[in-house]
Specification:
Rossmann fold; alpha/beta; elongated; 11 helices; about 300 residues; nine-stranded mixed β-sheet
Length: about 300
């Protein structure tokens, strides 16, 4: 791990300590801009409180920044603990940080913790989102999407939740495919599995919270070359909120299963496109139609 990566983690991660007050990514970006303007520049030594104060910070903030950087022992302990359960950090300064996640800038995750096959981040991918309670036709669509991802050499990106996520993931793995699961709970408890990569924001050992589940939806949407919506609630729920957020920011193209629901019609009015199960047989057609803005 490079010095830049270590510094990033020291400044932006709780490192397993819920009382720790790291910087936000925006605060870190501002700090980086100010450090580069420091004259004379800081070279081959650690920042001091005096250095940081010269950047325009008050004494309390300067002390906070320097104190975070000094907790090398805590960082080393946290990294060793992560390594014992097979987890590694991918910071925004890491070479392996997924390029697609940068679509979220300035709100891209500062660090994604990973467990499994990192090479899956470099392959073509389709994201699948959907409700926990599915109608029969919507469940069939989710499973068909997972199976086709495997057959066509796409990695399936999903969230591991009950319903559409698990149906699609199971179908993909059963067909010999690969899955990236952006989880909202602890990576430490995940069992290594062939063809699987688990990702998590904020730490490898953070427990499930509803807020983490909502936050990770944007990561799921951005890690795919396009997104398939198997089923959505009407103007509520994580699938609806994540999809609307994607459509507003134009992160990735969105295709909704044409199930005749009001939620599907409203999402299409916001910029999604309708799709039927038979249209899943060639993902390249979906990609080309989005690039050329051609109606399917």
């Amino acid at each position: 791990m490079t010095g830049a990566e270590r510094g990033f983690l020291l400044l932006t991660s709780q490192l397993g300590n819920p009382e720790r007050r790291p910087l936000t990514v925006a605060q870190l970006r501002l700090l980086g801009q100010r450090v580069r303007q420091l004259s004379p520049p800081v070279q081959d030594r650690d920042l001091t409180v005096e250095d940081v104060a010269r950047l325009g910070y008050d004494k309390d903030m300067a002390w906070r920044i320097v104190s975070l950087l000094e907790e090398e022992d805590l960082l080393e302990y946290y990294l060793e603990k992560a390594a014992r359960v097979g987890c590694v950090p991918l910071t925004r300064r890491s070479a392996a940080y997924p390029v697609r996640a940068r679509r979220l800038d300035p709100d891209a995750p500062g660090c994604l913790w990973a467990k499994g096959e990192l090479s899956l981040l470099e392959r073509p991918a389709v994201a699948l989102v959907g409700s926990r309670k599915l109608n029969a036709s919507n469940e069939a669509f989710a499973r068909a999407a997972g199976m086709q991802a495997a057959r066509q050499g796409y990695v399936l990106v999903s969230g591991g939740a009950a319903g559409a996520d698990r149906q699609a993931q199971s179908a993909c793995l059963e067909a010999g495919g690969n899955v990236i699961c952006v989880t909202a709970d602890s990576l430490a408890a995940k069992q290594p599995q062939i063809g699987m990569l688990y990702l998590s924001e904020e730490g490898f050992d953070r427990a499930f919270t509803a807020q983490r589940a909502l936050s990770r939806n944007r990561v799921i949407h951005c890690l795919g070359d396009f997104v398939l919506v198997a089923q959505s609630g009407l103007e509520k729920g994580g699938t609806w909120n994540g999809t609307v957020q994607n459509l507003r920011h134009s992160w990735t193209p969105v295709w909704c299963f044409q199930d005749g629901s009001q939620s599907e019609r409203l999402l299409c009015q916001l910029g999604a496109r309708a799709i039927l199960p038979e249209n899943l047989k060639d993902f390249s057609l979906l990609t080309r139609s989005c690039e050329n803005k051609i109606a399917f």
